[in-house]
């Protein structure tokens, strides 16, 4: 089974967890897209809360009724992909640039299920460059302060501004993203707190203590993990 088939299998497994009447957080990325397709095929009476414009477009095109975060008090279940799944279901997310909306939706959810192909599981977070979303105003100053934080953690890397076709990538919220190739993140909780304390950092891709379950597609079928 190749990576895409594993992503598809995990998305389909997660879609079977959804029941009619639920408010469902819809993640972003290629794995989450498999979930959205499988969910739409079930034709349940649900409301989807998308974590990006791309997911909103996909879901509404497939006939899923959409709501906005805040329309309802809580989201019953959110299903989303990840760039890395580490110990205790600690995650790096944001490879698709939707980390802020994703985190807002995850934090409003009663339960969060992460779906992924087998290559996403790691022994320690950090090989995938950590996305950090920052305000466009003053972003070079913010970058310098992020460098100071990374130095404090002996992660002496200069985060690079994410670009596409030579131009800085803007998130759905109009912000910029710096990617920090940390290598090994030995203290994710402390790093998360330190990054969040920098003025101008809107959020970062460390998702800690948020995932309740992982459904990972592997060559031998779905492997289920809990924190
Ligand atoms: C988007 C994300 C994605 O969930 C993450 O990048 C994984 O993407 P894919 O399922 O395409 O491998 O965090 O911001």
Overview of this protein structure:
It is a single chain. By secondary structure, the chain is α/β, with parallel strands linked by helices. The protein has 6 helices and 15 strands. A 6-stranded mixed β-sheet has the order 2-1-3-6-14-15. It has a 4-stranded antiparallel β-sheet with strand order 8-11-7-12, with helices on one face. A 3-stranded antiparallel β-sheet has the order 4-5-13, with helices on one face. The protein is globular and about 50 Å long. The mean pLDDT is 97. The structure holds ribulose-5-phosphate. Ribulose-5-phosphate (5RP) is lined by residues 7, 27-32, 80-83, 93-99, 102.
Structural class: alpha/beta
Bound molecules: ribulose-5-phosphate
**Biggest sheet features:** 6 strands, mixed
The termini sit apart by: 26 Å
Give the amount of beta strand, in percent.
25-35%
DSSP, total strands: 15
What is the CA-atom radius of gyration, in angstroms?
Answer: 17 Å
Which runs of at least 5 residues are low in confidence (pLDDT < 50)?
Answer: none
Could you name the CATH topology of the largest domain? Rossmann fold
N to C succession of SSEs = HEHEHEEEHEEHEEEEHEEEE
């Amino acid at each position: 089974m190749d990576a895409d088939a594993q992503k598809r299998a995990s998305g389909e497994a997660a879609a079977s967890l959804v029941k009619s009447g639920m408010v469902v957080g819809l993640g972003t990325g290629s794995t989450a897209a498999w979930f959205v397709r499988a969910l739409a095929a079930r034709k349940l009476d649900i409301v989807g809360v998308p974590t990006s414009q791309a997911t909103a477009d996909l879901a509404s095109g497939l006939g899923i009724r959409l709501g906005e975060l805040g329309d309802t008090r809580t989201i019953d279940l959110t299903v989303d992909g990840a760039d890395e799944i580490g110990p205790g279901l600690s995650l790096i997310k944001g490879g698709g640039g939707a980390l802020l909306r994703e985190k807002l939706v995850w934090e409003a959810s009663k339960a969060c299920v992460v779906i992924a192909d087998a290559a996403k599981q790691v022994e320690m977070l950090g090989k995938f460059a950590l996305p950090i979303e920052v305000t466009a105003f003053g972003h070079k100053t913010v970058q310098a302060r992020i460098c100071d934080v990374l130095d404090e953690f002996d992660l002496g890397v200069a985060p690079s501004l994410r670009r596409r076709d030579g131009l800085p990538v803007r998130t759905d919220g109009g912000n910029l993203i710096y990617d920090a190739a940390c290598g090994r993140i030995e203290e994710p909780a402390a790093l998360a707190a330190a990054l969040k304390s920098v003025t101008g950092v809107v959020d970062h891709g460390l998702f800690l203590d948020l995932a309740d379950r992982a459904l990972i597609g592997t060559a031998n079928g779905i492997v289920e993990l809990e924190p």
